[in-house]
## 1
Amino acid sequence: MLIGNQLAFRYPRHEWILRDFDIAIEPGEVVGLSAPSGFGKTTLSKLLAGYLTPLKGRIILDNAPLPTRGYSPVQMIFQNPELAVNPRWRIHKILAENQPPDRLLLNALSIHPSWLDRYPHELSGGELQRIAVARVLNPATRYLIADEMTAMLDANTQALIWQTVLEYARSQNLGLLVISHETALIKRLCDRSIHLA
Amino acid sequence: MLLVQDLSITFTMYDRGLAQKQLAVITQLDLDVQAGEVVAVVGASGSGKSLLAHAILGILPDNAQVSGTILFKGEPLTPHRCRDLRGKSIALIPQSIGYLDPLMQVGRQVHRTAQLSGLSQPAAKAAVDRTFHRYGLAARVKRLYPFQLSGGMARRVLVSTAVVSQAELVIADEPTPGLHPDIVTETLNHLRELASEGKGVILITHDIEAALQIADRVAVFYAGTTVEIAQAQDFPSGKIRHPYTQALWRALPQNEFIPIPGSQPNPEALPLGCLFSDRCSWVTPECQSDRPPFLQVRGAPVRCIHADR
C-alpha cells in the first residue's frame, strides 16, 4: 500500500501548498483526484513519486519509507512528455532506460517500430506520450501517478493509452492515481475518487 | 469571411548530409468561416491544426512550400496582405502566457497590441480599460507580470489581446487544456460572445467536448487533411459521416471509450489513397488507389467514398 501521512509542503518564504494531507492507495486500486488549479495536485504527485520531500509527514510504501535511491517504484507521468525524455536520445534508448518494454505492450499502444529510430522532436505529442507510458509500464513500477496524462491528447489517443494502462494495472496489480479535471474520464476509470474544493 | 481551399504545405528538410526530404504536412485541406460563426478545428496532434493557423497568419517558416487558395473577404491572402492584416483584422489568441513578454506588465502589453492595430494613444488606453472591465479584470491586474496571473486571469488577458485589436477574424489555438471546467466554460463563452458580435471565430482544439459546447460547425482534421465538416448537432444526433469522426466520438469517456488502434501516417511516406485507409474498417481497394474527393453526404462535405452507407 502507498500511504501519504499528514503531508505538508511549501517552498521557502511562500505559503503552504499542502497541509495535513492524507492519502492511501492499495495495489490494483484506481483512485481519481480532482481539484481546482492551485490546490497542490502536482505538488502531491511529486511528493508521492519522491521528486520532492515533504516538510512534514511521511510517504510509506509497503510499511517502509519510500526509497530515495535507484528506480522509484512510484512513477509519475505528466502532461508534457517532451519534458520527460532526453531530447538527444533516440526513442529506443529512451525506452531502454528501464527494462525495455516487450513487443505486446508496444503493439497495444500502437507504437510503430519505425518510431524507435527517431528523436523525440520527430514524434507528435500523442506519439511521444505513448513512449513515456511504455517506459514506465515495467515490473519495477508498483504505483503510477497520472497527472493530467492525456489532457493534451485527442479522444482516440486518450482512450488508447488508458485502455492499455488499465489492462496492465489489472494484470500486474498496479496502483493508479488519476489526476484530472475531466469528470467523465475519472468516472470511467476509477474505483473511487477524491474531490477537493 | 475566410475560405481555405485545397491547401497543401510541404516542408523541405535536410536528412543526412546534403540529402533533402519532403514532408507533406498538409494535403488538400479545406475550411470556411462566416462572420458571426464559431468553427471548431478538431484533430489529433500532428493533424495540421496549428499549421493552418500559421498559414492564415503568414508565419510559416521559409522552408515551407504552400499551394492552394486562402481568401480573406474574397481577396487572396498574399504574404504582403498577411503582414498588413495580422494583429489588425486577423488576431490570434495564443495557447498560453508563454506567448506574452515575461518582463512586461500585462496592461502595457495589451495596450501595445491596441496601438499596433491602429488606435491612437488615448483610444488604446480606453480600449484596454473597457476590455479589462468587460472580462472582470481589476485595474490592478494591468500592473501584474504574466507569471503573477492565475490560470483563469491569464486566459482573460489572452482573450483581451485579441479583443482590443478590433479583429474581424479571431483564431484561438488550444485555449482550454488542463484548465478547471469553470474556466473552460468561461473561456468558451467569451469566444461565443465574439461571434455573436459578428466576428468569425476559429477554435483550434483536440477536445471535441469543448468544441461542441460552442461551435456551429466542426471541421475534423486527420493527417493534414479535412476529413469532414459537420454541424455541431450532427455529433449527438449520430449523423457524423466519416469513420474517423465516428471513432473520435466513440472514444470519449462518456461514450464507449473504445479506441481504434494505430496512428496517423508518417508525413514522409503518405499512402497513395485515402489517408485514413490503413486504420479504417470500411476500406476497399478503391480507397487505396485514389485520394477521396469531398462528397456531400447528409448535407455536409466528407472525404470518404463510403460515407453514405
## 2
Amino acid sequence: MCCSLKFLMPVMILAVSVAALAQSRPRSYPNLGTPLNPAEIRSFDRMIGPEGKELPPGRGTAKEGAEVFAKRCEICHGKGKDGDNGLLRSLVIGRPGQPYRGTFYGEEKNGPSYYPYATIAWDYINRAMPVPNPGSLTPNEVYALVAVLYYWNGIIRENDVMDEKTLPKVDMPNRNGFVPAVPVYPPEKKPSWW
Amino acid sequence: MGGQSAHAQHVHSERPRRGARYRVDHMTHYTPLQDYAGIITPVALHFMQQHSSEFPEINAQQHRLTIHGLVDRPLSFGVEELKRLPSVSRIHFLECHGNSSPATHGAGDPNMGLPVQYLHGMTSCSEWSGVLLSVLLNEAGLQKEASWLVSEGGDAGKFTHTLPLAKAMEDVIVAYGQNGEPLRVEQGYPIRLVVPGWEAPFSVKYLRHIKVVDQPYMAWNESMNHSVTRPDLGGKARWYHFQFGPKSVITRPSAGLEMLRGYVQITGLAWSGAGVVRKVEVSTDGGRSWKEAKLHAPVLPKAHTRFTFDWAWDGQEAVIQSRCTDQAGEVQPSLAELSKNFAMDLEDWKKTPRPRAIHFNAIQPWKIARNGSISDVLFA
C-alpha cells in the first residue's frame, strides 16, 4: 500500500532534511553532558536491529535450547511445547510445517512465529529475560532458546544451528504480514489519523 | 457498580475511584474520568500500563540518559544536568493505543471502576516539564543517515520503542516533572519521553538509552502487543499507528451514575493528536440532531479539552453522545463510519472474542432509561 516510491520519496527527503538541521552544529551547552567513548557504548549497546548487525558471536541448537528452557524459562512459561503454557500466554502457537500467522480476533498472538524478523526474539530474550534476572543469559544460551522456540513453532528444523550469521536469515512466515513494509512518517492522509 | 447518585459524587469526602487490574506480566490503572474537573488529571489518578509486575527501583543520582548511534558526539546526561538545560512545561494528553477497545465493553469488574473509567480511562492529561529532545539531539549532532531513534527504558522488561526522527525533533519532551511534581515511579521516575498526540507506547518510561539509527528497529513490544491485524489490510497488521484521531466522551452523566429529572450539565473531555479541538457537538436523541457544546479555556493543542452542555432531562428514554471536530477538520466517527474504515460489518463487533481494534475513537453513546439508570449502548 505505502511501499511505492511515491510515498517513500518525501519521507527520505524529510529524514535527510531533519538530520541536516541538527548536523554538525557546535554544542550550545558544552558544560553539560559527558562524552561517551566506544568501550562505554559497547557496554550498554544491546539493541539489535532487523539485520542483526549488532549480534554477538555465539551458537545454539534446539536441543540445547530445550535444556536451557527447562532450567530458566519453564517456571513461568510452562513446558510450552506440550500445550502447558504456565502463567503466561502461549509461546508455541504454530507447529512444525504449520507456523501461525496471527488473527484480528483473540489475543493469543504472542507466538514467535508472528514476529516479522528472526532477530526480535533474540533481542528481547537477551535484554528482558529471564525474570527476575534479565540480561543474565549468555549469547549461546540466547541462540539456543531462539532455536528451540523457532523449532517448536515450525519455523526451523531441529538440527538447524542458530548463530550471528544464520539467525538474521531465518525465513519468518509472517515477514510480509505487515504494511507498510517500511513504515512512513507522517502517516498517509485521509484521514490523517487512520 | 450501578445506582450511585450523580449528586452524591459531589460530596467532598468521597474519594475518586482508582480502577486497577494486575496480571503477572502487566499492571493497569484506569483514570476515573468521571471524578475530576477541568483538564488536568491529578497525578495519582493518571492511567498506567506497566509491562511487568513490579516497578524498577532507580537511583536518580546515578541514572544517566545516553544518546549514541548515528551522532557526531555520543553523550550521556545525568538527571541534574537535564534539569539545568532550557526547560519547557506543556500540557498534553497521553493515551494508551488500546484505550476504548471493543474488547473492554461489557468486561468490567468492581476493581475497574465505572464504565467511562475502564472503557475510556486510559487517557489522561498533565503538565509535563522537561527538556526538549531536540536540544539533546542537537548537542549530540545528528549524522546525515539518521532517520529514526530507538529508546530503551530501565525497567526489567527494557521497554523499547522506535520513533521517527522528524517527530523527535518536532515536540518530544524528555520529562522529569508532572503537574509540578517529580515524576512518580508509575510514570517513569526519574525521566520519561512524552511524545505529544501519539499513542503512549512511544513515550518510553524510565528512559535510559537513545540510539539514533537509520531504520525502525521493530522491537518486541512494537511487533507484538502494539501491532494489530486488520480486515481492511487483508488480514495484515500495520507497522506503527502514530497520531490519535479526534475523540471525545461524555464523562458525566455516564453509565453507572443515576439521572435525576430537570437541569443537568452534561460534561466531558475531547482531544485530538492533530492539534486543538475546534468543536464538540452533543446529541441527546441518539445522533439524530446535534448542538454545539461550550469549550472551556484553555483549549490547547494535543491536550484534553473540557466541554459542557446545558440540558434538562424530562424523564423519557434518551441516548446522549458527543462528537469532536479537530483543527485538521477531521470529525470523530460513529461506530458505523469507523466500521467502514476497518472494512467490517457492524455485526462483526459483537463476535467473541471481540476484535482487537486499536486507536478506537468511535462516538460513545450512553442510554438513559426511564428509571434514571444509565448504560453503555455502543454495541447494543
